[in-house]
Write a structure and sequence with these properties.
It is built from 4 helices and 17 strands. It is mainly beta and 291 residues long. The strands form 4 sheets. Strands 8, 9, 10, 11, 12, 13, 14 and 15 form an 8-stranded antiparallel beta sheet that branches. The protein has a 5-stranded antiparallel beta sheet with strand order 1-4-7-6-5. Strand 5 and strand 6 form a beta hairpin. The longest helix is centred in the C-terminal third of the chain and has 16 residues, at 271-286. Residues 165-180 and 254-291 have low confidence and may be disordered.
Amino acid sequence: MINGKPYSDYGFIPINFYGFLDMPSRLGETFYDWGEYIEPLVHEDDLFWKSREFKIDVFFDNRLTLKTFNQSVNELSSIVGFFPITNEFGTFNVKLKEVNKLKHFNDLNVVYRLVFVEEEPMFIGAIPAAVGGLYLTIDGYSLFSDFKVLTEIVKLNDNIATLKQSRITTSTPQKQLTDFRTFKNIEIKCHMLKSDDYINNINRLKKLLSQSDFRQVVYKSVDYKCFITDGFSVKIEKEKIQFTIYLNIFSQVGLFTDSLFGSTLFFNGNQKKIKESLFEYNLFKTGIFQR
């Protein structure tokens, strides 16, 4: 349905749908550089999500309608405000952004791509009680047991991260860089089958990932405090669904973490500074040193 009317009212026969299951990316600032440490912005008041683009490939059949193709497109583009699109993935409020011609067999047989922009991402679906598992969990949820998601590859990018450029800088002979490092991350390559109620399960997983505060990830018995900034695209090929989740690591067991202040200590590689910070950290924990 488009704006409450069947596709055939516009002469459209839908062929393919793209983007409706994608996880949107964060919009705006995702962390704040205080100068002494970097604080991820994970409070519910700091969470904003980018609008997604939806694409529908349609075959235009003039036998289905008295409208010409241009009349159908003009009708959609002239709608003031957003209008609903309903399909197997749900209902979404959109605007028509553009129309592209994909295949032109003849004047009566043309395939077009309709591109829509979303009004505001909505995370639907209730998160069930966690079943859990041993290999990989997110907030106690197992990707497989709770969402029927199979993990192909889990890549832990926890090597020493590179220095990043920022407005808060320290001068070097080469260029200006911060004393702090970029966030390390966990990359989870996933797939699932259409037969596993994939639409509802992906929606539940996105709902979980979109929650405020940190995600507690346990991988191979190691705890990681993570947050998400990048979305993911869901690729549908026949019966197989594929996507890759990226989670930024804020802290983990074994890192120098001050849980009272919610900040991981990022070091610039200077061993003296590391030792001084550790000494101060231990004094603070024992009560000898007061901040």
